Amino acid sequence: MIEDTIQIRTRYAEVDQMGYVYHANHVMYCHQARTELMRNYGIQDSVLENNNILLAVVDFQVNFRSPARYDEELTIVTTLKKMAAATIHFEYEITNDNNELICSATSKVAFVDRDSRRPVRAPRFLREAFHTRV
After folding, report:
1. Mind listing the pLDDT tens digit for each residue in 31-69?
2. Is 112 within 8 Å of 54 (Cβ atoms)?
3. Which of 12, 16, 42, 67 has the maximum number of C-beta atoms within 10 A of its C-beta?
4. What's the CA angle centered on 130, arms 106 and 55, to 5 degrees?
5. Residue 118: strand, helix, or coil
6. CATH number for the domain whose boundaries are 2-131
């Protein structure tokens, strides 16, 4: 299983008038967590872009459970759940300092050609990096 954990401290600019982290920021947290997981396997966005490949989010689902607040340290566990020919699926769990579940999420990203914007197979170097662990 491929899994990674990062921690993020919420910033004042990320909270709304109620003092809760604005819901859209959870998507950015998940994006950052996915990026870090891939970076740990040598797959930075720049490596994909240098190979004419972009990642397009084709599905993103969030289930909010409890609000995150200003200056909380959040832990995000990202799991690579499935890799298909042209897509990759991730799951996320965000918890706070008290280990309370803030939200869970799933995303599906597609590999697309930078110029044509059409789906392409996952690049070989990515399949090899993840192959033995998925």
Report:
1. 999 999 999 999 999 999 999 999 999 999 999 999 999
2. yes
3. 67
4. 50
5. coil
6. 3.10.129.10
> In the block, which residue shows the tokens 């192959």?
131
Among residues 101, 30, 24, which one has the least CA distance to residue 66? 101
Q: What is the pTM of this model?
A: 0.92
Long-range Cβ pairs for the range 45-53 (8 Å, 24+): 47/125, 48/111, 48/123, 48/126, 49/114, 51/123, 51/125, 52/113, 52/114, 52/115, 53/111, 53/112, 53/113, 53/114, 53/120, 53/123
Q: Where are the domains of the chain?
A: 2-131
Q: Please give the backbone phi and psi of residue 29, each rounded to the nearest 5 degrees, phi first.
A: -60, -45
